[in-house]
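PROTEIN DESIGN WORKSHEET
SECTION A - STRUCTURE
LENGTH: 162
TOKENS:
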């Protein structure tokens, strides 16, 4: 029998492992955003440091685009959104491309219903096998029924080789 003892979910070991293996976005890519609140810049969501994340500077659909300096291998991505103040239905689309100006390939399109009385956090983990990634783009519609809603993103982490 093969057996190993693993730490419980939420342990500090798990958090450390995640911190150490994500791609250093600030060193290997440029970031384009359609808008941002000066007090909550996109760097806050991409840094991996516990922070308040990114918030758009204007209402409506927003885009966050990562343009890698060189093609990258992407094996996993995590996204975390938090909305504790108002009910809303958010939709996001995550795409990738192997070249700037090239066709975008959808990784996931997903909707989530936030509710202050229940579901306030959406955390997603996507195991992928993408080679030669030059562009990753996250499009967020913060509320499908309210165009005045403002998008936010607590965390977006990208992982390369294991």
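SECTION B - SEQUENCE
RESIDUE ASSIGNMENT:
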């Amino acid at each position: 029998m093969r057996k190993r003892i693993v730490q419980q979910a939420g342990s500090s070991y798990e958090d450390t492992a995640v911190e150490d293996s994500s791609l250093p976005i600030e060193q290997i890519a440029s970031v384009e955003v359609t808008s941002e609140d000066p007090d909550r810049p996109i760097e806050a969501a991409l840094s991996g440091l516990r922070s308040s994340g990114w918030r758009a500077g204007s209402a409506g659909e927003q885009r966050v685009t990562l343009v890698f300096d060189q093609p990258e291998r992407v094996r996993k991505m995590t996204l975390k959104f938090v909305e504790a103040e108002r009910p809303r239905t958010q939709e996001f689309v995550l795409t990738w491309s192997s070249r700037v100006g090239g066709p975008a390939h959808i990784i996931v399109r997903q909707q989530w219903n936030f509710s202050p009385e229940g579901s306030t956090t959406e955390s997603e983990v996507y195991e992928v096998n993408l080679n030669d990634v030059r562009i990753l783009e996250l499009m967020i519609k913060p509320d499908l029924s309210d165009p005045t809603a403002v998008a936010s993103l607590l965390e977006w982490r990208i992982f390369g080789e294991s």
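SECTION C - NOTES
The beta strands are 29-33, 54-55, 62-82, 88-97, 105-114, 121-141, 152-153, 155-159.
The two ends are 25 Å apart (CA to CA).
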